[in-house]
Amino acid sequence: MSKLNRNSNGYIFGYAILLTLVCGTLLAFVSEGLKEKQKAAMLVEKQKFILRAGLGSNSLNGMTDPKITELYDQVVKVETINSKGESVEADEAKLSIFKEYKKPAADRILPVYVVGKKDNPSEVESYVLPTYGNGLWDNIWAYVAIDGDAETIEGIVFDHKGETPGLGARITDAEVQERFKGKKLAFEASSINAPDFQKGEGNNFDEEPQKVDGMSGATITGTGVNAMLDAYMTLYQSYLVTKKK
Amino acid sequence: MSTEVIEKVEVKKETEALFSKKRKSLVSNPMDSDNPITIQVLGICSALAVTIALQGTLIMAFAVMFVVMMANVVISALRNTIPNRIRIIVQLVVVATLVATVDQTLRAFAYEQSKALSVFVGLIITNCIVMGRLEAFAMGNKPWDSLLDGFGNSLGYAWIIIAIAFVRELLGAGKLFGFQVLDKAWYTANGFFATPAAACIILGVIIWILRARSGYVED
User: Fold this and answer.
1) Which residues of A touch B105 (CB under 8 A)?
2) In this structure, is residue B120 part of a structural domain?
3) Model ipTM over 0.85
4) For residue A14, is it within any domain?
5) Which residue of B has its CA nearest to A28?
6) Number of independent structural domains in chain B
7) Which of A75, A220, B10, B70 has the largest CB neighbor count within 10 A?
8) Is B6 inside a domain boundary?
């Protein structure tokens, strides 16, 4: 036993176990240590999305994260409603639109972010409604800002988990999101028809408040967006009707 | 077997300068004549995928540098204890631990960028440059040499992907680091450069230029 046999099964097993333990422990520490920071980063991102949708895509240019949180606290009021539009008690911080999405539509609790004007937070600038659905590869979601008239889309911010870069992932481009600006929701008896991405790209739909210029090469992502907006706007219908002037 | 031979030779040269000629070439060779991308054609997939904009590419480059250098040092330090039969999996565990650390750190401190890079940070594990350097160099050399080798090779990778990203962001969006440099009034962004296919062509051109200069020919 003068020299350890490095090819014996015992040595190999021992080595593997030790290495796993060391690396596992290390990773556990890293994960625990960074958890709070990651949560904070995700929260700021949500606030950014809501403010960009509600106040315009350029409204946060040059602002640092703490400033954004400060602005968010100033102008955003959160309401939680059920699918009948009735106000319900719920902790918005714990409410996850991703988890609610898995419930039957009628049981979902939906947050509404009422964004006030920058210079006068008590006056409503827009209602930001989160939505969630499926794209081509994975989930997509959006924050839709509806104007104070409860009908016109003031802004929209999309995000996605795994759409194709350069094609479906373009829903995160400001230029694509701008196409929804000024489009209108069509209220029907028991549903809302949200504006839809059309086939093809480069068409002018300025005069048609229900149609949005599509993204070529991203038809399925576009269809997913259309279905998501129709489904969720319908859930918010009763709420929006009460806000309609 | 061969690893032991190399070490015996090195034991005699204990007075080797910290930055001897040989050691300098460990860093300089991978930049040009032994570049991991243009000569060895390794790490191509991430070179195509993450080079759409400079900022993300730079973060990716730093991430790869950190992983390659650290993995090289750790494996080099452990090289005499690693059982030969499970050496690849040992290398993989070390690399995976480092990559997971980088990924978690990015998520905490550069959330938007980490989202833009998405799976490609995790995929550093499968970047052939990392495993390639561990097998080819770190398993048979001392930690300091391995660190230099890792630095050289990752820098060789970094400058290529940054060059590709420069061309792609400039022509594909008219921007550099997110700032508009080509005026939208006269420059229409060429969407083709935003696609990975463009990266493939730019990479081909870079490989062409470098190989024409060095006269390198595949055997």
Assistant:
1) 30, 34
2) yes
3) no
4) no
5) B101
6) 1
7) A75
8) no
- What are B196-211's pLDDT values in tens digits? 889 999 999 998 998 8
Domain that holds residue A155: 41-243
Q: A-contacting residues of B 104-163, CB under 8 Å?
A: 104-105, 107-109, 111-112, 118
Ordered DSSP codes for chain A: --S--TTSHHHHHHHHHHHHHHHHHHHHHHHHHHHHHHHHHHHHHHHHHHHHHHH-TTTTTT--HHHHHHHHHHHEEEEEEETTS-B----TTT--HHHHHHS-GGG-EEEEEEEEPSS-TTSEEEEEEEEEEE-SSSEEEEEEEEETTSSBEEEEEEEESSPPTTTGGGGGSHHHHHTTTT-B-EE-SS-EE--EEPSSSS---TT-TTEE---TT-HHHHHHHHHHHHHHHHHTHHHHHHH--
Cα dist. B115→A76, A107, A162, B112 in Å? 25, 31, 10, 5
Going by the DSSP 8-state scheme, the letter that residue B53 receives in this structure is: S
pLDDT tens-place string over residues A60-89: 777 888 888 888 888 888 888 887 777 888
Short-list B205, B44, B50, B171, CA closest to B114: B50
Residue-wise pLDDT for A209-228, tens only, equals 888 888 888 888 888 999 88
pTM assigned to the model: 0.78
User: B215 to chain A, minimum CA–CA distance in Å?
Assistant: 36
Q: What is the pLDDT of residues A162-205, one digit of tens each?
A: 787 778 888 888 888 888 888 888 888 888 888 888 888 888 88
- Best A12, A20, A60, A215 member to test B by mutation, with max B CBs in 10 Å, is A12
| B150 domain-assigned | yes
Classify residue B219: in a domain, yes or no.
no
Q: Can you read off the two tokens belonging to residue B167?
A: 């061309």
A4-57 pLDDT, tens digit each: 788 889 999 999 999 999 999 999 999 999 999 998 988 888 888 888 888 887
Chain B residue with the nearest C-alpha to that of A6 = B83
pLDDT recorded at residue B7: 52
Number of domains in chain A: 1
Whether A1 maps to a domain, the answer reads no
**Do residue B118 and residue A166 have CB atoms under 8 angstroms apart?**
no
Contact A165/B at CB under 8 A: yes
- CA-nearest residue to A18 within chain B is B90
